[in-house]
Amino acid sequence: MASHRRPKQPSRARVTVLTTAAAAAVVLSANAANAAPSEKLGKDEVKAKVDKLYEEAEQATEKLDGAKDKQEKLQKEISTIQDNVARGQEELNKLRDSLGSLATAQYRSGGIDPSVQLFLSSDPDDYLDKASTLDQLSSQQVEALKKIQDKQRELAQERAEASDKLKDLSATRTELAKQKSAVQSKLADAQKLLNTLTAKEKAALDAEQAQAASRASSRVDLGNTGSASSRAAAAFAAAQSVIGSPYVYGASGPSSFDCSGLTSWAYAQAGVTIPRTSEAQANAGTRIYSQSDLKVGDLVIFYGDYHHVGLYAGNGQVLHAPHTGAVVRYESISNMTFEFGVRI
Asked: Where are the alpha helices (DSSP H) in the chain?
């Protein structure tokens, strides 16, 4: 007798797997058909992307410089406070010793029982608040107790201040690590792009940069442009003396520089202290909004967030430390987004 059983159906799970696999195959086929072949970026495209990464790295560098500067200041302030606390504790100990001597002398002369000398405890406030016992103290002892009170309050305030600054220092160190990582990441990305160029393309880029620097240098005419001041002239001369020095993020001389490292170092050679970062340097003097009013040695601030700075070199040129991979050199102000000058 013939069997009339229905053929076995594939399981629901098997159908689902097959359907999903088929759909994936269709998607992959479509993507493969529509995907454009990988194309090598041209020299100019690489340069544009690398320049953008260098600019972003410099933004992070200025934040890094600011965090380093803040860290150094906090460390000095904390050290000073800790020294003050140590000296204050010594003074407090001497005051307590002195008070103890008074109590001992009074006891020997038949005065109050030393067992009630609460003023020798770490909390003289508690004793002074007990007015009923004040008549047991000499005026000399009351004065000594008040001195101890004042010294303890002073020490408590200084310890609280040190604690706050230590917390700030910890946060600053975290920010420092964050910005350093950001700089290194941008520079690594830029290097990867540069590595895609052939030796011939790299040589061509280097030649273009050298020619641009040479043209900028030839346009500098210091003979016909006055300096902002004798100190500005001295600062500019100092910067000229390190033309060709490499840009290194976080460096402030004497053999390598970042942008604000160069300007702060140059002015230091002229005996003038200015802030370390470009953002802070933007507020270090009188702002000059017209390029025609700039004089040699004025600071020149670039970009809306003030993340780049150089020294005005005359005739529309700036002397600056541009970015990683470059050296201290002249460049046209028009190559960057000019914000204003600052006369120190």
From this structure: 12-34, 43-108, 124-128, 139-194, 199-219, 230-240, 259-269, 278-281
